[in-house]
Specification:
By secondary structure, the protein is mostly helical. The chain has one domain (4-114). 84% of the residues lie in helices and 0% in strands. Helix 2 packs antiparallel against helix 3 and helix 3 runs antiparallel to helix 4 (84-114).
Length: 116
């Protein structure tokens, strides 16, 4: 039987992964700020090892996703909105990179559900 601490740890891990997916799919920026706040609060309690691991991974993935989206926007801007190459880069980003980040989030949330 799981203790209350383990259940709370698993709930926090689910929150971390859910916020990550919300940041990618629904509310970018706002969910990132909430993820950062939860991440900072969770770091203060070392008893939540699983939650700290999930918040850390979700926060790092969110940062990398932000870097990639910024780079894509920069390439489209520098290449010009009229450039076919810029749009090919943007389409490749959304079909490959963004989808990969979403799949990593789904993998993370499935691990959080299993308590790993």
């Amino acid at each position: 039987m799981e203790s209350i601490e383990q259940q709370q740890d698993q709930k926090l891990a689910l929150i971390a992964e859910s916020l990550y997916l919300i940041n990618l799919l629904l509310l970018p920026g706002l969910a990132y700020i909430v993820l950062f706040i939860f991440y900072r609060k969770t770091l203060k309690n070392p008893a939540h090892t699983i939650a700290i691991s999930h918040f850390s991974a979700a926060f790092k993935r969110s940062n990398w996703a932000g870097v990639f989206i910024f780079a894509t926007i920069l390439m489209v801007w520098l290449g010009g909105v009229d450039s076919a190459t810029a749009w090919v880069i943007a389409i490749i980003y959304f079909t490959v990179v963004h989808s990969t980040f979403i799949l990593l989030g789904v993998l993370g949330i499935s691990q959080a559900f299993s308590g790993k």
